[in-house]
């Protein structure tokens, strides 16, 4: 699966710029106050020659240039103005340097910067997916969602998790924190989200997060992971969870089907029936040779869902009207109990 990086919305970048400017706001206010106070002082105490033709804006501009050590006028005669001419540049340099240092430390402080950035990203999202838990299952879910270009925000309890850096390398908004905090879910835009997936390795955490999410947003789609299959079924009915899955229940049919036949691609249980996708190779003597997907379905009594050409990876994108030739393989959807009969029909 190709690695996909999350594109940062322009609105999020603009909001982050506004966030950085808010960090500078107190220092900018001090510089503005120094400029205005200096301009008023220059007009009030300057000699007639020094302020001749100099309005308030011009006086403020002279003080402003002093903040950056660029004097545009000679040293005045008044002692207070002389003191101002010496102290304003030093004070301005100190305020600017201190402000830039603080903003720089804030932006390069990973935890502070990351938290602010994710909150800003969340404000731009709508109908997004919140993924709780970035273990082995959670990361696979994340990969599938990114492949489908769905906006995702991830919450992981452990900063040292095995897939944290990988997710960050893809620009995925990721919060290190406790998803059981309602305030955190609200900050991530749960009220605007389309779905919440709780797939940590702790059933109780998944349950608590799911209940909190349903309380905050009654219309959100809930998908939960549970190890206990019986408990999963009961909770799904009791708490109106849209989809609730047991990892062991999902993997067991695939293991069983793979043990019965090496050409199984996937398996799941449909009611009481174990279903599978089975690959059948087309040989020169096979009755499948020269037939298209519709004809193969009629012959095998099984729908054709995929095709493998030569040694290429299988795909579901192929011309269903094109006759299949020897060397190719078709992938059919069939009940596991019917695999032997389907193979027999494929051999003729």
Automatic annotation (TrEMBL):
Residues 126-245 form the RCK N-terminal domain. GO terms for molecular function: monoatomic cation transmembrane transporter activity. Residues 265-348 form the RCK C-terminal domain. One of its GO terms (biological process) is potassium ion transport. It comes from the Bacteria. InterPro entries: NAD(P)-bd_dom_sf, RCK_C, RCK_N, Trk_Ktr_HKT_K-transport. This is Trk K+ transport system, NAD-binding component. It comes from Nannocystis exedens.
């Amino acid at each position: 699966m190709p690695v996909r990086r999350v594109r940062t919305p322009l609105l999020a970048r603009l909001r982050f710029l506004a966030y950085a400017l808010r960090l500078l706001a107190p220092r900018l206010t001090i510089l503005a106050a120094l400029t205005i106070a200096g301009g008023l002082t220059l007009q009030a105490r300057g000699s007639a020659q020094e302020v001749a033709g100099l309005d308030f804006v011009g006086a403020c501009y002279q003080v402003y240039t002093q903040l950056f050590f660029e004097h545009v006028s000679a040293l005045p005669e008044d002692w207070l103005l002389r003191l101002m001419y010496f102290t304003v540049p030093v004070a301005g340099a100190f305020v600017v340097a201190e402000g830039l240092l603080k903003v720089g430390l804030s932006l390069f402080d990973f935890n502070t910067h990351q938290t602010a950035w994710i909150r800003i990203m969340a404000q731009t999202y709508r109908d997004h997916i919140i993924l709780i838990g970035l273990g082995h299952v959670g990361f696979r879910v994340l990969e599938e969602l990114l492949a489908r270009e769905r906006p995702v925000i991830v919450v992981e309890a452990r900063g040292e998790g095995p897939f944290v850096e990988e997710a960050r390398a893809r620009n995925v908004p990721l919060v290190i924190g406790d998803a059981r905090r309602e305030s955190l879910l609200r900050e991530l835009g749960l009220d605007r989200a389309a779905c919440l997936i709780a797939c940590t390795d702790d059933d109780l955490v998944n349950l608590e997060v799911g209940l909190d999410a349903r309380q905050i947003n009654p219309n959100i789609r809930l998908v939960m992971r549970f190890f206990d299959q019986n408990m999963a079924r009961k909770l799904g009915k009791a708490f109106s969870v849209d989809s609730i899955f047991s990892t062991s229940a999902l993997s067991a049919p695939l293991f069983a089907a793979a043990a019965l036949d090496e050409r199984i691609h996937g398996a799941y249980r449909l009611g009481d029936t174990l279903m599978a996708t089975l690959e059948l190779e087309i040989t020169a003597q096979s009755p499948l040779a020269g037939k298209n997907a519709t004809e193969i379905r009629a012959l095998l009594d099984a729908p054709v869902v995929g095709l493998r050409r030569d040694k290429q990876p299988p795909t579901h994108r192929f011309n269903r009207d094109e006759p299949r030739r020897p060397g190719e393989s078709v992938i059919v959807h069939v009940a596991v109990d019917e695999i032997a009969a389907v193979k027999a029909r494929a051999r003729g």
